[in-house]
From TrEMBL:
This is 2-dehydro-3-deoxy-phosphogluconate aldolase. One of its GO terms (molecular function) is 2-dehydro-3-deoxy-phosphogluconate aldolase activity. PANTHER family: 2-DEHYDRO-3-DEOXY-6-PHOSPHOGALACTONATE ALDOLASE-RELATED, 2-KETO-3-DEOXY-6-PHOSPHOGLUCONATE ALDOLASE. Keywords: Carbohydrate metabolism, Lyase, Schiff base. InterPro entries: Aldlse_KDPG_KHG (IPR000887), Aldolase_TIM (IPR013785), KDPG/KHG_AS_1 (IPR031337), KDPG/KHG_AS_2 (IPR031338).
Amino acid sequence: MKARTETLRKYVRMAPVIPVVTIEDARTSIDLAHTLVRAGLAVVEVTLRTPAALDAIAAIAKAVPEAIVAAGTVLTESQIAEVADAGAKFIVTPGTPPKLAERLSAAPIPVMPGCATVTEAMALAEAGFEILKFFPASASGGAAWLRSVQGPLPALSFCPTGGIDQASAPAYLSLANVPCVGGTWVAPAELLRKGDFDRIGELAAAAAALRRPT
Ligand code: 3PG
């Protein structure tokens, strides 16, 4: 678990934003990954919400080795091996029921499990996880929640996702327990459908320029 946590720590520090993408056509995933990497966003979360998701993860892992592709929206135990076999570098869950948490703690790749409450965060910490997804961030208390848990949960860091955009990201990124944020605003489904990689590149460059003040 320790080595996997350190690997995940490296990934979440690579860029201020992890684009969360839902891919309908796996063929677009390689252009997407190149566009994001070129703009300075090396980490991308491909959600398992479409039939093309596993192929997209495999395509990115094979064709764009400089990208760190995560599998998002992992909901079931059986998906753990599927995404690891496809080449995902880490796993993200929106929420983490106890049985899934147990299986995830034995996953072959790092995991950023989702939580939305202090109790859920404590349960995940007890299972050995130190870097959590806070989801749905804005609906669950936003930056104020994250600031409030710094005192009682000093060993944990969070990647808040859900309802965050370019304008609201800086408030999250200014917090010491937030190495990065996630969101769909960088590569929205509509732009992906149109194949508008110029616009995605612009949004990604703006997101990559978001830095927390040191
Ligand atoms: C996720 O799975 O992380 C969410 O779907 C993020 O969506 P949003 O950035 O559009 O709120």
